[in-house]
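Fold it.
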Amino acid sequence: MKRGVLMHEDIMTNQPIVRFENGKLVETKDHYVTEFPLTIMVNGEEFATIICSPNHLEELVLGFLASEGAILKNDDLKSIQIDDSKGFAHVELTKSLGERFEYSTKRMIASCCGKSREFYFQNDAAVAKTSMSKIVLNPTQVLNMMTRLQSASKIFKQTGGLHNAAISDGDTFFEHRQDIGRHNALDKLYGYCIQRHIPVRNKVLIFSGRISSEILIKAAKIGVGVILSKSAPTTLAVTLAQDLNITAIGFIRDGNFNIYSHPERITPVETSEY
């Protein structure tokens, strides 16, 4: 694969602005989060345009295509070339995309395995997987993973403008990504794992934002069994998590958290007998 040289930054620092403060207009400086449009071309045809933060673009493209089902195995990918000067990613596959992507944006309700799961897009129903994860975590691991995400999220604290996510095994493996788009941060992590042949089944996604149905479906597409968030999930996200065998944990704050689905992956704290 060819890799483009990144020419952009996540943040434009010290940009001139006018601020209204204490009844006066004052010239000062501030930081902007960068938006970068990236058009993905697959086999010479336009596949999608993603508004993203201009970092780890090859990971983003790889993770996005894999989560959409355009790439199912490593042999499907021939090459990726990032031309970030023009905002294009050129992807060559060893196969054609097939008919499914001709109507990939049509809304639909799909029913799978006898359960009434609601999917908004055709590809969601086709690619989202019931988790087969065997991971078991203790409460300390859950709390520590969220703490590590917050420590890694320095730019978000600086500007308040980026979504942060990480993938971990609950122990030593921990990788963090950030992006202006919440889905993009997860796709970058997936792409990172694909590039390095890291299995994702027994991994945990840690997310800075709310677990919506879209984020839950993205987790199912990636194939993890646990997703963590500081916030509460939506009702549809909980329903999907129950159906897709994903443990959704939220409100991780001040040493406490709520388990909304499949609590069997979290072991109880052993109490000492006196």
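The longest strand covers residues 11-21.
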